[in-house]
Each structure stands twice: as C-alpha cells, then as structure tokens.
Amino acid sequence: MSIAENLQNLKKELPGHVTLVAVSKTKPVSELMEAYEAGQRIFGENKIQEMTDKREQMPGDIEWHMIGHVQRNKVKYMAEYVSLIHGVDSLKLLKEIDKQAAKHQRVISCLLQVHIAEEDTKFGMSEEEAIALVGSRELEALEHVKVVGFMGMATFTEDEAQVKKEFQTLRALFDKVSREHPEIRILSMGMSGDYTTAIACGSTMVRIGSSIFGARNYHG
Ligand SMILES: *Cc1c(COP(=O)(O)O)cnc(C)c1O
C-alpha cells in the first residue's frame, strides 16, 4: 500500500482526540512529501541534524517533533523551529532548551520522558522525579520552556498484558499530575506495534513510523 493509503487507514482508526505524529526518521524527503500531500502536517524525527535538513527542504507549515534522545550540545540547531520535544529527561536539559529558546524569543513545549519499560535500555526519568519536577520552582524559573505532558515507551514485547500495565502506569501518573497542573495535557505513547493498546490506555498522541512509511532499513 502507498503512504497515502496507510495514512488514510490509520486516520480512520484513530479517535478524534488522538494526535498522529508521523515518524519519518531515516526516510527520504520524497516519502515525507507523499505524507504531506496526503494532509499530514506533524512529523517526528529522532536526530536533530536530520530533522533540520529535512525542514529546510519542506514546506513551512509543518510541525516538527523531536522524539529521540536529545544531546544538550545540539539543542541550538532546533531551538528556532521545533514544535515539541518528547524526550526530555532532566532539568539540566530543560535549562539548555530554555537558554536556546530565549535566543529566538520562543517558548518551547516539552514532554517529560518517563521510564515505564522493564528494560533499562530506554531513557527517561522515574515517576517520582517527574512529579517533583512539574510545578517545581526550578521549572517555573525557566520562562522559555513549557512542560505540557509526558512521553513513554513500553517494553518491546509480544506480551500485551505487560505493555498494557506499563501504559496504564503512565496514564495514572498523567491523571494524577494533570489534576493539579492543567498545563499537563499531552500523553505521548504508542508506536506502530502498540498504538491500539496505548490508545485504549488513554494516550492522546501516537508516534507512528513503520505503519505509515514501511519498515526502516536500519534500526533508528
Ligand atoms: C522510531 C520511533 C517511533 C516509531 O516507531 P515505529 O515502530 O516505526 O512506529 C516512535 N517513537 C520513538 C521514540 C521512536 O524512536
């Protein structure tokens, strides 16, 4: 099936309150343009340089989301334009984002990545750290970043019960924190293999790559 058909089928499945981030990492601009022409306006990349290169070649009305692990020394390359940074896992990184956003008189929206998977290969803060950071004075002092939600990745497993348990954990955290902090309104969870489960568990934003663009040649 074509990229446009994949997108169309996916959109039919997604509830209206769930935002689709088309994860286009490793894919050429020509394929991103196919998605763009089919109406997609939000793209997710996991490398800052690749995202910046693609942005320069594509129309200006795209929202670019950084979904990968962020190296502090590269924040400056995306501060001018990035719409949402999903993988923020420390106050130190937030401070750098704040500093770079200030140079462009912007306020950059960020999600705190929370570690929910069993594997310890996945980045993220603990639930306790995330709770402590939201509403903290240190965060309030940063005028050019806004934490607007959480992101999580489930364990890569066929065990759906395990995946469900992890997504439910993050949803519970989201509910708890957003009650006191209404600015926490985005819950980014779900990829090609597990987005149905993620949505059932209350995801509001899914990051889908291979179900739209096909398999990637290398693991990104
Ligand atoms: C690559 C990636 C995705 C998309 O993965 P697919 O399985 O291709 O849908 C989602 N989130 C993150 C953080 C990724 O790195």
From TrEMBL:
What cofactors does the UniProt entry give for this protein? pyridoxal 5'-phosphate
Q: Which SUPFAM superfamilies match?
A: PLP-binding barrel
Signal peptide start-end: none
Alphabetized GO MF terms: pyridoxal phosphate binding
What keywords sit in the KW lines? Answer: Pyridoxal phosphate
InterPro entries given for it? Answer: Ala_racemase_N, PLP-binding_barrel, PyrdxlP_homeostasis
Q: Which residues form the Alanine racemase N-terminal domain?
A: 2-216
> Which residues does this entry mark as bearing N6-(pyridoxal phosphate)lysine?
K25
Q: Which HAMAP family match?
A: PLP_homeostasis (MF_02087)
Q: Extract the NCBIfam families matched here.
A: YggS family pyridoxal phosphate-dependent enzyme (TIGR00044)
Family as reported in the entry's similarity comment: Belongs to the pyridoxal phosphate-binding protein YggS/PROSC family.
Q: What does this protein do?
A: Pyridoxal 5'-phosphate (PLP)-binding protein, which is involved in PLP homeostasis.
Q: What is this protein called?
A: Pyridoxal phosphate homeostasis protein
Organism per entry? Sinomicrobium pectinilyticum
